[in-house]
Amino acid sequence: MSERREFRDLATPEEARSVVEGLDIDPGTETVALADARDRVLAERVDAALDVPGFDRASMDGYAVRARDTFGADEAAPETLDLVGAVHAGERPSVTVESGTAAEISTGAVMPEGADAVVMVERTTETDGGVEIRTAVTPGEHVMLAGADIAAGARALGPGTRLTPREIGLLSALGVDEVPVRSRPRVGIVSTGDELVRPGEELDSGAGQIYDVNSYTLAAGVSDAGGEPVLYPHAGDDFDALEGLLHEAADECDLVMSSGSTSASAVDVVYRVIEERGDLRLHGVAVKPGKPMLVGTVGESAYVGLPGYPVSALTIFRTFVAPVVRDAAGIPEPRTATVAGEMAVDERYAEGRLRYMPVGLVEGSDGRTLVYPVDKGSGATTSLVDADGTVAVEPETDVLAAGDAVEVTLFSPDVRVPTLLGMGEDDPLLSRLLDRIDRPRYLPTGTDDADRRLREGVPDVAVLAGPERPDEPGVELGDWRREWGLVLAPDSEVDELAALVDGDHRFINRDGGSGLRRSFDAALERLADERDAAFADLTGAIDGYDLTAQANESPARKVAAGAADAGLGLRATAETLDLAFVSLGTERVRVRANPDRTEKASVERLRTLLADLQAPTAALSGFDT
Amino acid sequence: MSERREFRDLATPEEARSVVEGLDIDPGTETVALADARDRVLAERVDAALDVPGFDRASMDGYAVRARDTFGADEAAPETLDLVGAVHAGERPSVTVESGTAAEISTGAVMPEGADAVVMVERTTETDGGVEIRTAVTPGEHVMLAGADIAAGARALGPGTRLTPREIGLLSALGVDEVPVRSRPRVGIVSTGDELVRPGEELDSGAGQIYDVNSYTLAAGVSDAGGEPVLYPHAGDDFDALEGLLHEAADECDLVMSSGSTSASAVDVVYRVIEERGDLRLHGVAVKPGKPMLVGTVGESAYVGLPGYPVSALTIFRTFVAPVVRDAAGIPEPRTATVAGEMAVDERYAEGRLRYMPVGLVEGSDGRTLVYPVDKGSGATTSLVDADGTVAVEPETDVLAAGDAVEVTLFSPDVRVPTLLGMGEDDPLLSRLLDRIDRPRYLPTGTDDADRRLREGVPDVAVLAGPERPDEPGVELGDWRREWGLVLAPDSEVDELAALVDGDHRFINRDGGSGLRRSFDAALERLADERDAAFADLTGAIDGYDLTAQANESPARKVAAGAADAGLGLRATAETLDLAFVSLGTERVRVRANPDRTEKASVERLRTLLADLQAPTAALSGFDT
């Protein structure tokens, strides 16, 4: 078995697709109430069991007549007919229209016996006991004959029809209140790994626990594809437990997916289960992300083993599994889930496997769609939401150059290009500004990265902090000031920067690319100058200078959690978390825009929001809540 | 009040749109479980409450080391470190990595204290009690730092974000199991009219009853737009009952829609309710279909009165109301719900109102999308499914000529152009053939109409029956024969055509455009010739010759129901319904294809199915089931 684990013979993506398509996950059929039939797929043809309308129906308000009696009538020479009564919608006619007579009739009412046409009320005048007809009508005029809409026995809807409001309308007209539809394929989801904890439960990070991302993510993906997800309790690496779960899921579902089960230890269990009760058809596919993939059967159920990393699991699910679920559910592939764009930057990749490169989209000038790679490593979950779709990069393509045309397969047809792409410093006030913009995307990559990316022309705006440099890219859109310094435990004795350097304190720094870190280093440089010491001597003296955190609040949170004595941060954060604070300065946060995109509506909106900050009432207008 | 009912001042469509947009249907917010959050819209920003990952995590299988200890190591000069233990995913490290030591580590495991990098297993060799390191690593290599994916305090998802599998993935990673989302707007649906019966209940056609089409249709439309439909029992024209229902619905819903309430009597009730408890803002809009439309408020709820005819009600709902429901639900307008096409035929219309013309689509040669009007009168429900979308025809446009470019707004982004458009004769064998084609559309318009439309180049195929004419359009794809004649009550004494003419029998004919009717008339011509009588004398002698039914089975069904003694029909139908049958002949049903489209896949498929019919095993292959 061990040689299998080495994925020696990776299948090509086409082979993998064909093996997955060969799985039988036909869920059969069921009957649902019409009220629940929306988006379901008809399992069999529905013929009309009755005529619609079920009777000859007046299609105008007016008078039911014998057409022959009106021949020759016009404005100049009206015919007068005797009025024998009236018929309203929803009642059985109590009159018969003989030659020379007429009955008042409402739209939708049953044509009374004898009548074969309706004269619309506008062309008549009621007289004493009679009605003057001022136009001739032909037999059938303003009458919808029984069955004219659809006749009993006629083919109404074919098998495979998806039931949208329109089809539900026709079924209603036919009086159908129960509909034979394809069942939704039941897809069992088993996540494996001792480290997994369900969202909402307590997490012990120190013991390496992480939240189970794949269960709910895949469940939502299954629902999107028209399947019915069934979540099983997550299996640890306990062989018997995993084996039991796989058996249970296989008995209850049309398809079982496990994720994380491509790890060596879980694979052993899956192999054992498949060898006892099924058939292994594929192990490993030459694609990134997602190389480890298992396809086979367990009992009567199909089985697919997905990688454990969420981005990999979702990519493999979407690319290979969702089409098969959709097909079994009878739901067509969504239309127009691709957009054409051009690379915003160069991207090099030479691993010789088909790569589904996650990309983000941004609207460039002239309405061009620019495409930039989003790759934070397959362990990252934020790349799930920071990307809009994928570009399939063929194994032989090593470089995509800026400006190259690419086709992006969107994650769903509902994906929209974000209105605003921002990058740069993390900041609590910025977060509140972003809440006031419709569908922005903001990547808190820090000042240095945002500076570089704005020069490359990728984002709409860069948010820069820390010491100002003379040649910052783009044009300034607005700014605000923030006070920064040391965030400290409430009982800390640290009262200035020197105390941090000279004392014995556990410190947490910000990462090198952040503006705050650059401001901190500048303060340390000044202190080194004052002391005539080397910068490295000071940083070496701070326990934790090299321990960095990614987000603006992170060091403060470590302090609040007791994991550190001091952290680099903002006064605003210290106040929010009820921590002590030693100010080391104030820095200006600059929002700088891509010069080609200052007219973009979202950039204008941000400019307005920034201008509002300067207004004296800004503090009252909700920004500081 | 009466002048209001006359719709004197119709609003323009723009005015109507603006009045509907002015309604307040904001449904507020609620909290849902993560498992139920798919497709919901975030009501507020979600910030990360914890670091992801929550610990410094090994991203490779290998050995956790102090990077400094590996400096200078390479294949030629490996460093050997003492092995102090192992750390697996999901466990708390029990070892500390001091200088000169290493710990075995699995992907996903917590980095042990002291270690700052991972050497991947492929670049190591385990020795007795130690491990040989054959490469240098830098601090942080193959380690994902705590918070590197997303750090505690960072902005994760903004308000207004629609929750797709990706966002659900990120929320899972953050351990969020309850999500604040916008509530779905509750939309109450009240159908009015004494004649309405809910699908599934008994229908009394003679009393003018019809099934309520609008309730379920609009409910499905509301769900599509992200709202939550609430069906109320249908109101008759009883003033008090309707008033009570409107009050109840207004108390319980964000928006109340009534349909059919634009009739004069119902309007009086609606006016009274609105005058007592609300505000009437609009009555009547210059658009077809759908002129009668009411917009206002009832109590705290918004109110829209829709026309009663299903096509009109759904058009007005889609055009004016759905965007507002979608907006309140926070769901963006679906993308690409339009296609460009060209008119297949001329269409004249000169009523001076904006018209949403229902159209069907067919793929012409060269991949062109041809557009043909579908108009069976606004009372028809089949036009709901025979159309794919609408073309907005401006009031000043009187004529659209064949070849004119038009833009079609699809009923939904999921609408696909039917693979096959057929028109012509209604036939039970044909129905079964169509079941074997993926998404065909077949309009049983009869032989004469199909002949004309195929000459115009609209359908892919025409199905013709009745006496053959020398110049039938298109190219023949295949055929079958069917035996036709008189379908009779089991105890009928009619044994030949002459008996029908000479006796006193209630007969039901087929409509003039059907091939069967032409065959019947030819038989009557021959009988007239034999008797040296006029054709009209014979037809005049048949009681019901002018009573026609639309579908092939309809006359037979009337006979089966006792509503007639004899009907024109097929032997197959008589057998299905256990009726007597007098044969009057056999006719050839010809399937003729548009010469430009014989290569179309669906046409090829139909050709194959027709060829299979001729095979000796056809009767066994399911066609006759």
UniProtKB/TrEMBL annotation, chains A, B:
Keywords: Molybdenum cofactor biosynthesis
Domain of life of the native organism: Archaea
SMART domains from the UniProt entry: MoCF_biosynth
Pathway: Cofactor biosynthesis; molybdopterin biosynthesis
Protein's name in the database: Molybdopterin biosynthesis protein
SUPFAM superfamilies assigned: MoeA C-terminal domain-like (SSF63867), MoeA N-terminal region -like (SSF63882), Molybdenum cofactor biosynthesis proteins (SSF53218), Periplasmic binding protein-like II (SSF53850)
Cell membrane keyword on record: no
Stretches assigned to the MoaB/Mog domain: 188-327
Species classification: Archaea, Methanobacteriati, Methanobacteriota, Stenosarchaea group, Halobacteria
